[in-house]
Amino acid sequence: MSSQTKPRILFRRQEIAAAVKKLAAEISRDYQGKSPLLLGILKGSFVFMADLIRLLDFPVEVEFVRLSSYGRGTESSGKIKVVQGLRSQVRSRDVLVVEDIVDTGLTVAFLLDYLQKKKPASLKLCVLTDKPSRRQVPVTIDYLGFTVPDKFLVGYGLDCDEKFRNLPDICVLD
Ligand code: IMP
Ligand code: MG
Predict the structure, then answer these.
(1) CATH no. for residue 100?
(2) 130: domain range?
(3) Residue 126's closest CA among 6, 51, 7, 39?
């Protein structure tokens, strides 16, 4: 797959905004009176995170962790490692992991397992897009924006070889 291909729109910015608003309402309802740590997985989640937190009207902290599962291109290496680790305390915190996409599930399964060992008060997962057809390990998604087909997506933070993260719509690379 080449990054020369012209991306085709799958979800327009207005649909994304509506989905993020719905997720923010669910999260606001569930975390009333709490002050969760929102933990984004870099780099893909940064656009979603930025929009999501601005719709939350209660105290939140934001942290990012950088993992690697994909090398370059579109194929998963299957090996996950922490490239840039957590600086915040997780123990006894309400932790909400924020991710752009769950594909094989290996990345979030690894991170949730890693975080669970640090004994958070609660641990939940908020994902913008889910590609269930490619799942290799089971993942429970607590807050989900869109279920997507088995296509390679770019835009709204999602990349192909580091390109297209800036597209305001979620697009398919055919
Ligand atoms: P997983 O470990 O296979 O679930 O892959 C998750 C990671 O792979 C995501 O955080 C993305 O960075 C990347 N990824 C998976 N599918 C896509 C896609 O369609 N477009 C862009 N990145 C993707
Ligand atoms: Mg990612």
Answers:
(1) 3.40.50.2020
(2) 13-151
(3) 39
Residue 7 covered by a domain: no
Is residue 174 situated within a structural domain?
A: no
Into how many domains does the chain fold?
A: 1
Q: Considering every ligand atom, which ligand is closest to the CA of 66?
A: 2
Tens-digit pLDDT profile for residues 70-88: 554 555 556 787 777 788 8
Enter the tokens of residue 103. Answer: 């594909």
Each residue of 97-130: pLDDT tens digit?
999 999 999 999 999 999 999 999 999 999 999 9
Q: How are the residues of the chain apportioned to helix, strand and coil, as percentages rounded to the nearest 5?
A: 25, 35, 40
User: Which residues form the pocket of ligand 1, taking CB atoms under 6 Å from any ligand atom?
Assistant: 41, 44, 69-70, 76, 99-107, 152-154, 158-159
- Segment 44-57 shows an average pLDDT of 97
Q: Quick one: which atom of ligand 1 is closest to the CA of 110?
A: 2
